Structures are given as C-alpha cells and as structure tokens.
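DATA SHEET
Item: assembly model
Revision: 1
Owner: S.N.
Input lines:
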Amino acid sequence: WLLCFAMIRRVSTTSSLSATALGSFMKWSFKSSHFHGESLDSSVSPLLIPGVHVFHCPDVVGIVAKLSDCIAAKGGNILGYDVFVPENKNVFYSRSEFIFDPVKWPRSQMGEDFETIARKFNAMSSVVRVPSLDPKYKIALLLSKQDHCLVEMLHKWQDGKLPVDITCVISNHERAPNTHIMRFLQRHGISYHYLPTTDQNKIEEEILELVKDTDFIVLARYMQVLSGNFLKGYGKDVINIHHGLLPSFKGRSPAKQAFDAGVKLIGATTHFVTEELDSGPIIEQMVERVSHRDNLRSFVQKSEDLEKKCLMKAIKSYCELRVLPYGTHKTVVF
Amino acid sequence: MMMMRRIISERATCVSKNFILRSSASRFHGESLDSSVSPVLIPGVHVFHCQDAVGIVAKLSDCIAAKGGNILGYDVFVPENNNVFYSRSEFIFDPVKWPREQMSEDFQAIAQRFGAMNSVVRVPSIDPKYKIALLLSKQDHCLVEMLHRWQDGKLPVDITCVISNHERASNTHVMRFLERHGIPYHYVTTTKDNKREDEILDLVKDTDFLVLARYMQILSGKFLKGYGKDVINIHHGLLPSFKGGYPAKQAFDAGVKLIGATSHFVTEELDAGPIIEQMVESVSHRDNLRSFVQKSEDLEKKCLTKAIKSYCELRVLPYGANKTVVF
C-alpha cells in the first residue's frame, strides 16, 4: 500500500524547483482565463492562473482556516473547495481550486507556504500543482494486443484533453510500422518498445529502465502481471483498466466470464495496481445494461466502450489531483 | 420455471367464471379506444419456447388472427448459434369468439407440432392470480414494499401467507397490515440443525412460486426439488460479487464505486441461480456503511419488484444453463 500514491510525495518536492518553472511563465497568459470554462469579465486581471492543492493529514480544528488564509494572504481566490472527514476516522482531506497572480505569489514561494502548513499539521500528503507552470506528468503506456484503450488515450492526448507527456509506449505484442498506432506514434515522436514476455521472463528490468523517469504508468490492457518486485522498484503509481466490474470477473476474459454468468449489467473498473491481481484500490467504475439479445461480441464491444471511458475518467481525475488514498484499500475521489 | 408447465394443464379447467371482469379490457394499453372498437376485448399473453424452425411466427400469429385476436406486441428472440426460438406476444381478443378453453387447446396444438419446451398462455382478467408465499427473516423493507404495492394493485398476485424465522410483535406495522388483509403470518424458527423445511413445504405447496424477500436461510436442494416450482430471491449485492452475508459491508470494505442488487432464481448453490434483474447506484468516499446499506435497500426494493412484475407478465424465460431471457 505504501507503493501507491508515492508520487504525491515526489511531486511535492519537485514543485519547489523554481528554475525550470519560471521558464514556463509565458504560457500562463493564454491558459488562465479558460480554467473554469467561463468568460471572465474585464474587471478580473488576465494574469490570474489556476492552482490546485490537496491536503491529507490527521484531523484537528483549524486546518481549513489555515489553508484558506494561506491562499488569501497571497491574494489567491478560492473557486472550489472540497473537504472530507470520514466518520470515526481522525483524518482530514481537502482539495482546493484557486486562481492567483504568480507575480504576487511566486511558484516557489507557494511550494514553501504549503509545505509549512503540511509540517504544522503533520500531513501525510500535501501537493500543490499549477497546471500552466508545472511540468506535465510524464507517463508510459503499456499494452498487449488489444489497442482500443491506447488509441483512445492517444487521440484524447492529441486533442489536448489528456494533459500529460507520453514518454513511450511499451508492448509485449509486435506491431507493423504501417498500422495506425505506429504511424501515429512516429508522427508524434513517441517511442514504441516491443518487449516480448515469456512465462519465465517478464522482462521487468528492461521495463523498469524504460519507465524510471515517468510520474506514473498506465496499463491500457497490458495483460502481464507486474510483480511486487517491479512495483517496489518503480515506487510510483500504476493505474490499470480492468474490463469487468470488480470484484466480479477478475483475471482473464472478464467479458466472457460475464456472458457465461448471465449478468444483466457489465462494467469496467479502473484501479491502482498492487501485488494482488485486480485487487488494488478502485478509482472509477462504470456499467452498461446487457440482455439476452447481447452475444459475446456485443458484450465485448460494450466492454471496450466502457473501458475507454472509465480509464480516461480515472486518469483525468488523477491528473487533477482528485484521487487520494483512503484507508488500506479505498480511494477518495473528489 | 417449472411453474409454466403446471399452468398449461391448469388452464384447461378454469373457464368463463370471470367473464364479468372483462370490462377492464379497454384500459389494457393505457390508451382510450374509440367507439368503433368493441369494449369486450381483453388482453392475453402467450410465450413460446421451442426448437427453431421456419414458420413458427406464421403459425402462432395465424392462430391468433384466425380467432379474431389482434396482436399488439410481439417479441421474438433466436440466439446466435443456438437452435432455439423464443417469442412473447401480447394480443387482445374477444372471449366470446375465442373461449378461454379453446385458446389453450389451440396453443397446445401448436406446442405439440413444434415440440415446444414451453408454451404458456395467460389471460390476466380471467385466469386466477398467481398464488405466492413471501419468506423473510429480520429485515422487512422488501416485504413492506411488496405488501404496499400489492395493496395499490401494482402486484397482481394473491399472497397466501408470509413465513419468517423471526418473530414479530402483533402491534407492528407488518403484523397489523397482514391481519387487516387476512394474510396469515407463520413464525417458523430455524436452527443450524433444523431448517424446518418440511413444515415450510407444507405451508407453500399450493403456491405458484415463492419470493425470498431477505430470507436469510439457505433452502436445500431437497426443498427445491420437493417444491418443484420457481423460487425468486433478492440479493443485495451485484452478483457474482459479494455472495453470501452482508454484501453491503463487503462492498463498503472493498471500496467499490458502484453498489447493486440482483434478483435471481434460487438453485442449490448459494446466490448463483439465473439472474433476472440487476440495478446499480453510485457510491463514493462520502458514503459510510449506513448509506451503503440504505442505498442497497432502496435498490433491493426496486429490483425485486421489477423482477416479480416481469415474471408475472411472462417476460422471464430460461436461457441456456444459467441465464434468462427477459422480454
């Protein structure tokens, strides 16, 4: 469980690097006014840019007061705030969305200010992210033969709907260079690594080497099981899409399992990967109705449509800092 | 789905004693009929399940048309790679032109001709209502829902009795309701060693099917064989996830983002019989166990009611070894 959400701690340390952040200053004037999808009237400064802060600490009186004051003191304006304190559990979660003037509140100062509060409250997690300044998340995508999820992600990435840097695509399945995916990847300069696996050799060290500089990994129908060794070695979050409604139909061919079971609803589940197959904390689930009129083919087709939506939603939530660890086996998703 | 065969033989005996009821005919589809349509048309439903062959629909529809019946809805389903045929027709007819007994014989002739596994015709306004027994343990939200719907006329059955392994004081809502409507309540205690299945069997032997509305005891294969008719259960989890006890708590601990309920036929294996209906609702970190349970209960009520309604309307048919067709 310690493996998961490890990245959140990493991000909070990298966010204090100011040298590279200042280089992206030029970008903020274009992005700021579109954050909420609303047009800002002329009285609002066009120099305000959005920031997100998530906080997770033991519960006490005064956390919201301190956090909101921290933002207000630097002229930041909170536009959205989610707080969650579970019953019978002495923990606090918050996620705030705010806009601020990076001249009044420089990025590195922001990192320090939140860090101070994090220490004060012994936070398990304190992450601030300024999408227009901070480097995009670097991710690697792993898949086997089925590529509908990968294609969906690549297209959404191309449309600017997936705000990440795709460092590479890794597959244990070879693809000819004249296929849609290979041409797409080549056109965008994303490397494709064919790493065939066998029963005895999962080539995990090679994979680890390829992904070590990423912020998280997405298994987009990668059908090999990653070992505990790999997960520890990687140390950051791995997100998987399972084309079944967990905990039903773990393992292979869940659409066929569902078809044989005669269920009336099929689903897809996005979750964090742990050592145990298809058992990590669930991030998102979606369903669709099926009936006697569905054959295996339509079960699979509906499954695939669900997988694409479910995986995209989960990754979007993750990138927006909406997903936090909750208990040993669950997630808070703001 | 054993009941269907019993009904075929029973149909022959019940005739025109309920002729007076046919005045409810004109409201079958919820539409007003203009004055040129005879007000004595009543609805009928026929389901058919046989080996697939050319000409079944032609024969069935001709059978109805020949007697002046008008088909208002028709569902046919022939699965891929499976040489079976399912149909369900809704029609209105004049019981003077097509007497109830004759209708049974006419469909029976077609059933024989096609070697049907199943042929059931039902005329809701003439045929006796389904007789059912309801079994429950401590949780009574499903029973209460069914009793209220029954009272509102939305559950077209005769409730012969309620059986529970949990005692209820006479001044409780459920007990007063049952007393007011003359429905007997049988408190049948069970222990690990004695499930008192013989006594239950005796109480329910004249029913058409059973509904387990949160009855937490497992009925043995012996009981199911002895009873011989359909038993419908509501499981407050999205099968095959969370079989057995406390599925809401299992779901809560598992951190799922969707919870559900499943209505299914009971077989020897716990929570594994053919599924009739499933429903879900979203849950999040903001839900505690209490709200998981509450959402679960709301789903159970809807899911069970829907399944029973489908069953009574002859929409549920066996499909393969462990599935259902639900028209």
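QC remark: The domain at 42-122 of chain B is CATH 3.30.70.260 (Alpha-Beta Plaits).
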